[in-house]
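Continuing from the previous page...

OK, I double-checked the sequence for ThiF family adenylyltransferase against my notes and this is the correct one:
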Amino acid sequence: MKNIYPMIKSSVGVFKEKNTKRIHFVFYSTSCHKVFEIENECILKSILLMDGTKPLLDIFLKINLNFQQFTYKELEECTELLLKEGIIENTNDPIREQFTTEELERYSRQVDLWSDYCDLSSPWELQKNIKESTVAIIGIGGIGSWMATSLVMAGIGNIKLVDYDRVERHNITRQLLYTTEDIGREKIKVMEMKLRSINPNVNIFPAHMEIDEGTDLSHIVESCDLVINCADNPDINTTAQWVSKVCLKYKVPHIVGGGYIGHLGLIGPTIIPGRTKCWDCYQINYKKRRKEGKLLTNLFPDRKRHTGATASISSIVANFQVWDAIRLLGRIGDPNIINKTGEIDLNNLSIRWNNLSEDDLCEVCSEYYI
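Thanks. Re-ran it with the corrected sequence; updated structure tokens here:
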């Protein structure tokens, strides 16, 4: 405790209840409200001195000067409780020293959020986990462009971008960072330049390539902590099958980046090899649901399907999955979109979840899945 510089978290409000000895701590980020009855006036005086500029011993000596009955052990016990309850943090944090002054300023508000949602000894440890991660995004269009931007803003350390397309005018209404001046340019080059301008601390590795069933993705996947598939040519289900096969080989977590059909947004899933059901399990579930519907014959099999799209739905779908990525990479907790997919309806903002059943297991997953 000697080296701790305690500070009430900036996201925590401290209030004294009139005519009582109760102190209220309000967590603004989570709407949590904790109340403690403080009988010892010295404890309250100590809390008021916890501004992050003084070590715990200095706080004790200042109080003890006028209240000699107050012991250092009492202050230590109080501090331990406040740390455990997530009310204070230690500004003398060695992990902070691994970030530059610019990074400390850049990520400060974000780390305030981490401090409320994680039980790590230092919220900067979570940011460090994100900084040391490598993510590949395959397809940087309607979903991928938003996910790449959000992850770079969050401080992902290394990001691989895979795409072969060029910016078209109709992309600009829903795909982030592309502008009218970029029409005709390779998406990969435009995205690389603009992401670097957002966060120069991130290492960006662009790959101008189109994937198909025979594409060797090993050099993209094997060094990653997470792969996000947003490629939709010929369709998201087919590319998910290709990408998931390689990810399972290297045991790399991966997210199927969903998509949208008009006002409906498709969310997830997040797959962790060896811990969750895999893409083949989802195909078993999908085929079951297809059998329940009517059998229809497509009279225009060669016509490419186009559905309406807007930035509203693509950004919502993308950032649902970015939060899952951050939880996984930062080790803030288990991802939310595992063993299920979601469908968000933009008309009423409802989400319908399709949970895999115990019977939706491929041969591989049935060997390890509980």
